[in-house]
Amino acid sequence: MSEIAFHLIDDPADDAFWYFAAELCAEQAEAEQPTYVVCANLAHVEGFDDYLWSYRDDRFVPHTADPEDAAHAPIFIGCDPEAGGFARVINLSGAAIPRANERERIDEVVPPGDQPRDEARARWRQHKAAGATISHQRIESVRQAET
Fold first, then answer.
1. How far is Cα 47 from Cα 15, in angstroms, rounded to an integer?
2. Using an 8 Å Cβ cutoff, are 45 and 4 in contact?
3. Residue 1: what pLDDT?
4. Cα separation values, 39 from 46, 80, 94, 140, Å
C-alpha cells in the first residue's frame, strides 16, 4: 500500500517550493533511499539540478539528471512521470504519477495558488480511491522546516 504525503507550501518566499523540495531530497539522500524527482518539464529539471548545487552552503545533495548516472546517485531528477525503478518519488510536476500503488512513498509538493491546490485535490481523491495512506502538512516557513 502506497504512502502519499501532500506538502502544501504556504511560504511566500520566491524559492520556497524549490527549497522545500531540496530539503526532501537531502533527507532521502541522507537516508540512502533512491528517489526519483518528477519535474514538470526539462527546464524545471535543469533549474532544479542547478538549484540543488547551491541552495545551502552546509548541505550537499548527491543527485543527477543524467539517466546514465542514475544508478550512481541517490536522487535522480527527470520529467517522465511514468519512469519506473524507484520506490520513492518526489512529485514536483503537478501531474498524477501513474501506477502510484507500485510506489512505496510519493511526496507531493504543492505550490501556493488555486490551480495547483485544485489539481492536488484531484490527485488526493485518486490516491484515496486507490486505497493509499494519505497525509498532509501545511508548510508556512520552509526554513523552519529544516532538518
1. 12
2. no
3. 65
4. 9, 8, 8, 22
The predicted pLDDT at position 40 comes to 96
Helix, strand, or coil (residue 100): helix
Question: Which fold does the domain 3-139 belong to in CATH?
Answer: Rossmann fold (3.40.50)
What are the start-end ranges of the E strands in 82-124? 88-91, 105-110
CB 17 within 8 A of CB 113: no
Spans of the chain below 50 pLDDT: 145, 147
- Going by C-beta distance under 8 Å and a sequence separation of 6 or more, which residues neighbour residue 58? none
- Helices (H), ranges, the chain: 16-30, 42-54, 114-129
Domain boundaries, the chain: 3-139
- Indicate the length of the chain as a whole number: 147
Question: What pTM was computed for the model?
Answer: 0.94
Burial group, residue 114, by CB count within 10 angstroms (0-12, 13-18, 19+): exposed
